[in-house]
Amino acid sequence: VLHQFGHAGRMEPGDLVLHDGGVTSDGGYASDITRTMPVSGSFDGRGEALYDIVIDAQAIALGMMRPGVAWRDVHHTVGRRVLEGFADLGLCNGDLDTAAERGAYGLVFPHGVGHLLGIEVHDMEGLGEDLVGYDTEFQRSAVFGPSNLRMGKPLREGMVITVEPGAYLIGPLIDRFRADGDFDGFWDFDRLTDWVGVGGVRIEDVVRVTAEGAEVLGPPIPKTKREVEEAMA
């Protein structure tokens, strides 16, 4: 569970609300858009720190997009950036490149950076994710975190895909990683546990791959911290 542990919570100042939703267009196509908002109307503290990591990671992903770029590589680069952000907060320590290669970012970024979108929210995945999102050259990782990436093969012009990096503090997942022992000395599990109350952040847009790069579809929705705060004022 990424960002919802029950339905009896009460929104309090300092909390973040993550809204993941969409609509169906008149032509029958789906959308899938996420925004994260501070209950108080202003970002601060740990929630703001997570938001800064995620919005920067999304910008990196959008900047990488163009035909021929493997979506698996975009995911890995975003995961590496998320690790860097957590290292800056003192929550992990060590060789980030090696840790990223081993999938350390799966602890705080356990889902894929995006998926194909079309008539269905997860386009054509009824045929099987591996058949749609992978091929003989680009196959699904067996490492937790990267293994949840729904598509890893290269982008093609005209593809419509979500771009949705995230950063989460999930108690049961922290416990699992601690028990596994694979990242002892890299993650500071005690400090991570202390951060669990902040919840998580995801920012997601629907994006079309163009010949030169990427185009975010639809009218702009507040996304920068300033835009979100102004919309909530």
Structural write-up:
With 233 residues, this protein is an alpha+beta fold. 31% of the residues lie in helices and 13% in strands. It contains seven helices and seven strands; from the N terminus they run ββααααββααβββα. It has helices at residues 45-64, 71-88, 96-101, 129-133, 171-180, 189-194, 225-232; strands at residues 16-21, 33-38, 160-163, 166-168, 200-202, 205-209, 214-216. A three-stranded antiparallel β-sheet has the order 3-6-7, covered by helices on one side. It has a two-stranded antiparallel sheet with strand order 1-2. Helix 1 (45-64) runs antiparallel to helix 2. The radius of gyration is 17 Å and the shape is globular. The two termini are 30 Å apart. The relative contact order is 0.20. The mean pLDDT is 94.
Summarize the structure.
By secondary structure, this protein is α+β, with helices and mostly antiparallel strands. The protein is 31% helix and 13% strand. The protein has helices spanning 45-64, 71-88, 96-101, 129-133, 171-180, 189-194, 225-232, and strands spanning 16-21, 33-38, 160-163, 166-168, 200-202, 205-209, 214-216.
